[in-house]
Amino acid sequence: MKRLAGYTILVLATITMVILLWQVRSVVGLFFLSLALASAARPPVRHLMQRGLPLWLALLLTYLLGLALVVGLAILLGSSLMSELYDLAENLALAYENTWLAWMRGSTSQQALAARLPPPSQLFETITGPQGGLLAQRILGLAAGVSSFLAGIIAALVLSTYWTVDQARFERLWLSLLPASQRQPARLIWQAIESGVGAYIRSEIGQSFVGIVLLFAGYTVIGLPYPALLALLGGIAWLVPLVGVVLTVAPVLVIGLMEGVGLAIVAVLYTITILLVLELIVEPRLFNRRRYSSILTVLLMLVLIEDFGIVGLIMAPPLSAALQILFTNLLAAQKTPPLTGAADQLTMLRERLTTVETALQSKEDAPPGISNIAARLNKLLHRADLVIRNDS
Fold it and tell me: pTM here?
């Protein structure tokens, strides 16, 4: 009876915790996004520290490099993008006027449809006037959403610097909540998840950046209209799994057909070629997607898209990778046969320490600090051996 009551309390507590986390999912999402960004930045920071730089300088250079790439991309596309948006607005207005006039002189159904649409001269008033209030509200809502998203990204970047600086303290904090026997396996699982998610984020950001630059250069050379806008949309759409290819190629096809069939074919073939380069050459060097099942990714996409929209589609792959790494390591830990006792563990540790000491003796320029650590470990193993003998 007590066991049943304990299980009931545990289930109720779990359900309550899940409900509470769901209520504050935006804060939880920001927290995990900051951890993901920190995991993506940690290998470059560690590489710079191995070259002798202090942590604060390595961290500063890493984030400055990321900021420089964003600023460089903005400079590359900025002027062209603004003029293209202005031209696109004018062309859409002109296309609307021509279509409305053609429908007014067309069939009965076209005339009836045109009669329900505002005349071209009143289109701007309809959008900004009382009749266009709902559209204006949606535009303001979209702008507010974009501003909130950018603010969240900035906050996540700031938090990620904190996690990078205090990584050891953060790990000790949450590992202290676990029993001592489970802390080492939990640390290994956490490091595996962090490595996999960080590799995925670096891969996607790298592919998106390379794709935008190559698409913009190619569209400009072949004379496709709106090259900066189409390249930016393609680089963002490529982040969406499974349907990213369709979202990238479709606008290119539509704009190309407006200029001619030949230009559309060339633009589509060039776009597909760049996407194949990203998929077959760039991505395998940064992230091994084949290690993870796509079925779980699809299921998470269906769940997350309802509440988070396009952001949920982008969040699904790293979350899927994290869950699969977690389950794989848990199953591996269960299948690993335990050691027979403390004496076996001590013997294993002594063999490893002997290997390290042999390697240090073969190196003339071995750092003194490592030799001191090895000596301290040897004393600890000797004390552990005495404790085991006394207990036996």
Answer: 0.68
